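To close the section, here is one more complete example, presented without commentary so you can practise reading it yourself. The ligand is fe (iii) ion.
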Amino acid sequence: MKYYMPARVYAEENCIANHAEEICSLGTHAYLITGRSSAEKNGSLDDVKAILENAGIPYEHFNEIEENPSVDTIMKAVYIGLDEHVDFVIGIGGGSPMDAAKAVAMMVCQKEKRASYLYEKGSDEALPLVLIPTTCGTGSEVTGVSVLTRHDLGTKLSMFHSVFADLALLDGKYLTSLPHSVLADTTMDALAHCMESYINADATVYSRMCADAGLKLWGKSKDVIQGKREAQPADYLNMLHASAMAGMAIAQTGTSLPHGLSYTVTYQTHMPHGKACGYFLPGYLREASAKDAAHVLKKAGFASLDKLEKYYQKTSRPEELPVKVLETGIQEILQSPGRLAKVPFAVDEAMLRRMARL
Ligand code: NAP
Ligand code: FE
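Output:
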């Protein structure tokens, strides 16, 4: 049994300013990695710039990280980072910029290596890394995983290296600008993380402790996502906590079939990550042991599997997915021994077809 999560986590209002000294002690030339515009709009980028400027630390800013970041974009950021001699990385945003920041922090340390190194065994050495989530789903700030888009393979694939943040800074105020659909989809991702980690061949008593805590916290904000009550500041911090707990769970176990099936869907149809995972989640629970399924549903506050299905339909409003895309995803899973090994029950094609609603 092993539990490993080396990131130092702070979660509070004004988190960045409160920990300015610790952030600034990580290097002398910062590299800020963000998406196109959200970090600017929600205030997180200005907060980071302010503490760096106050400490006299120069910084570069790469703001071209797209949703589901590609290896090509990572390498573009790496070459700029190398040219500018940056020595620490601050990733701000959803899972896309945070995953990108991990890959960049590692590749800048591997000056002689090409993009293929992301998918080769070798040193995981990386520049010091700070991650600041502004969505509440991926938990990337507390996992070692970086999921990247591989245009050469036509899907998404985690890099073969583990890179954890040194510091993870959670401040609920950055979530207040989230469009409702992104809030619904990213919280669905956190729910999938908890459930896929709990019902997982690699689950341990520690990973289940994190999954259970994540599910309980998650259940507290369910009514906000369904529009039954207005979000309060405490809700946003709660959603960040739930997402981080879920991240701590998958940092130990990895994810399972819903995530595995989601990658082809997102690549081929651009369905957002959390929404794509949610599409397969009820089916996963239906195939799992009745005891485990009942446990995770109850922890998250669902009276039945049917209630989870209805919640997903209402909050994520999934469109029908093309049969060909689903079939491609199923074939990929069947050829992925690593993914199949995570499932604590027998998997065959017929079962995957049921999960995929075919
Ligand atoms: P995302 O792709 O990072 O962001 C989705 C959208 O939300 C973007 O348009 C982004 O805008 C916007 N956004 C972000 N924060 C916002 C805010 N506070 N206010 C308004 N808009 C905001 O979404 P995500 O679901 O968080 O991340 C998905 C990625 O994470 C996928 O690639 C997935 O595979 C990966 N993932 C990683 C792990 C892990 O363990 N590492 C786990 C699960 C998923 P901008 O582009 O302008 O920033
Ligand atoms: Fe996920």
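Once you have examined the tokens, check your reading against these statements. The first helix runs from residue 15 to 18. The two ends are 37 Å apart (CA to CA).
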